[in-house]
Amino acid sequence: MHRYIARPYGGSVSGLRLVSMLMAILVLWMLYNRLNDPATWRAFADDNEPTANWSTAEMRSAQEIVIPGPNDLDADEVSSIQDLFELVTDKAKLKPREMDAYWRLMDWSRTQSFAELEKRCMKDIAFTQLWEQPELYRGKPIRLRLHVLRVLEYPAPKDQPTVEKVYEAWGGTSESRTLLYSVVFPDLPNGLPVGPEIQADIEFVGYFLKLLSYTAYDQKTGVPLMATRAAPLLVGRAKFISKPTPPPPPKTDPWIIPLAIGGAILLIGTSIWASRSTRKKSKVRMLPDELFSITTPCDVAIAPSFGGLDTTEPIVNVGISIKPDLSSTPSRPIVPSDQST
User: Fold this and answer.
1) Is the pTM of this model over 0.70?
2) In the chain, what are the domain boundaries?
3) CA distance 94 to 83
4) Is the pLDDT at 27 greater than 70, yes or no?
5) How do the residues of the chain divide into helix, strand and coil, expressed in percent and rounded to 5?
């Protein structure tokens, strides 16, 4: 007797079914990857979300205002501001005791035009130089080309009668990349929009004050990051270079859609083929080994009876082809018990 292994889900998995399963997993992965991209849901975002106002009113123009006064070219002015720099703390928030140095640098920048200040600025200063040696560059004029991501507007305090508003811009350079600078200027350049989310390029010339700490947030989840970050804070003048660039459309890989369609077609075709194959197999009856068909010749002695009539014909052996049940077949020929001669 043979031993059989029960397989309730079929005897084996065909190679085609395995390929279809892998294709289905690949299609699901591509859908998940696409749905996980925030750019996919940009069309469903609230249109009332605060963004940069591109109207003409917000594209305010400002005349370059120059106010005569002392600046860093005056030795006495440079000497007096050193006492104010002693109160400055790097990698921390802007504190009230630091505001005197803040406004002093603002006054210095307003005593010169953009072109005059640019001639004396230090160029090609790396972010790491300001990060590692802020005391060396404090109060020195520096030139930056920034890719601005945010421009905010604040009213000036009442004790500053010559300044009405202060504009704060955040952005990085080609060298700093994702590491941001914070620059402050009293006059808004012509063409530069104001808003929490913009894209524009500006040239900035101004004086370095300190490393200003800030809280960074994850762009996808909005959760604040644990790592402390600091941006170099500079006060001076800005010049608008290029018009704001709208956000680029979400990128779509050209091979994703054809691959998804091909995987879906293969999956449907495999399902149809598998269902037809299962129907054909279900029509065949599977019998155990105990019931296999055999043909065995067997000599059986038969005494025919003809209604009680005697016959002188001899008994003959008849070869009969039967399909016996081997489990109940005796080892001897079957002989009727009422055999007569």
Assistant:
1) no
2) 47-242, 292-341
3) 17
4) yes
5) 30, 20, 50
